[in-house]
Amino acid sequence: MPLMLRASRLTAITVLYATAAAADVPEPSPSVYLQAFNETCRGSFPDFDAIAKAAVARGWIERAVPSVAMIGNRPMMLPHVFSKGGMMLVLTHDNSGAFTAVCQVTGTAGTRLTGRDIAAAVGPGLNAGAAAPGPGDYKKDDFSVWNLGKGITVQAGVSVYRGKARSVSLAILQAASADVGPINAPPAKSSNDISMVAIGLPFAPEAPTPVGSSHPLFHDVTIGEIQGLPATVKSSALNFIAAAKRSSINAALRETFRQMNLLAPAAGRKRLVVSWLGDKTPFHIGSGNTTSVTLHYRLDRVDNGQTLFDREITTSARGGGMDASMRDNGIVRAAIGANFASAANCLDHAAFGTAPSDCALTPQYSVSVVRTGR
To answer: What SS3 state is found at 148?
Structure first.
């Protein structure tokens, strides 16, 4: 299965790793690839040390450590390779190529799915806007491409080796000319286009990842209405336009926990009590601003009322746009989404006694709201 970097000898190395790891492992579904990609590559890219650490913590087995070899007449860092459940995770640096960093999750088993099948299945979970579709040739690499800005792209589809070996592959790439920095989300036409569900977006030090069926909180958390939440949330009292209504904020909280596989479909054995403590957006005339949002989360057992988790979380988001009221409302929505994602991620860790001292995640993206004509 070739890497996105078009270096034939490097491709051969990767194929050998994948072949050795396959061992007749059945092919995972596209959703499994997406989860693996989000929990490793997407969360800390291009920080390979953080990605490798997160991979090992989530059960990936290290197969090869980076080393320098001669590719043609130039030195090149060979990939860092991990395996897990019929998948390979490959981290590649090449300072002289078209892409200086590539993090790729690929299958070790064949697939009959097309590139567009894969793109359609994983696209919504990438939360990266519209994609440029691949060529649709069954015998050649077929990847849809999402442009995240600053020289960063995500590719998802089918990788084809020598016209026969076909495998599912997702990768995030940094172009050699990239201006490294936080990734920007696609511009929104109104503040309401800024989602308050941030699962699938990149965060530091890690991105929230949907839990599996063996998790202690899998489909076991009941969530009520957020306490203390006003009828509408605004960036400031001077803003006559609401950032979000109470109903949409409550819906976003539930959807975040649903996507994380924590929300109970009926009555769960755990109850999450959430309280709104407020938001803060400084008055700023320029084109950019930052908002912070604070909520309190308490997880109780339903049967005896025992408190299992009790945290106050403050998250921030930044963004731009020339219309101050629309811009600030959009940033408020992004900060709310980051808060919900932080709480879900912290609960994931708390179930195993590994919750960080500060649950807040830092978005590795910014939002932009632009006014368009009617």
So the answer is: strand
Q: What is the pTM of this model?
A: 0.55
38-52, pLDDT tens digit by residue?
A: 888 877 788 888 888
> Which residues are registered as beta bridge partners of 190?
none
Pairing of the two strands 288-301 and 165-175: unpaired
Distances in whole angstroms, Cα of residue 350 to Cα of each of 60, 257, 263, 359: 21, 15, 16, 10
How many Å apart are CA 188 and CA 185, to the nearest integer?
8
Backbone angles phi, psi at 76, to 5 degrees: -150, 140
The answer to whether the CB of 207 falls within 8 A of the CB of 264 is no
Tokens 């020598």, located at residue = 162
What is the tens place of the pLDDT at every residue in 232-256?
Answer: 886 654 455 677 899 999 999 999 9
The CA distance from 345 to 347, in Å, is 5
How many CB atoms are closer than 10 A to CB 160?
Answer: 20
Residue the block writes with tokens 């089918």: 158
Q: Hey, how many other C-beta atoms are within 10 angstroms of the C-beta on 338?
A: 26
* C-beta neighbour count of 329 within 10 angstroms: 28
Best CA proximity match to 93, nearest among 150, 158, 49:
49
In sequence order, which residues have a C-beta less than 8 Å from that of residue 35 and are 6 or more positions away? 209, 210
Q: From CA 11, how far away is CA 1, in angstroms rounded?
A: 7
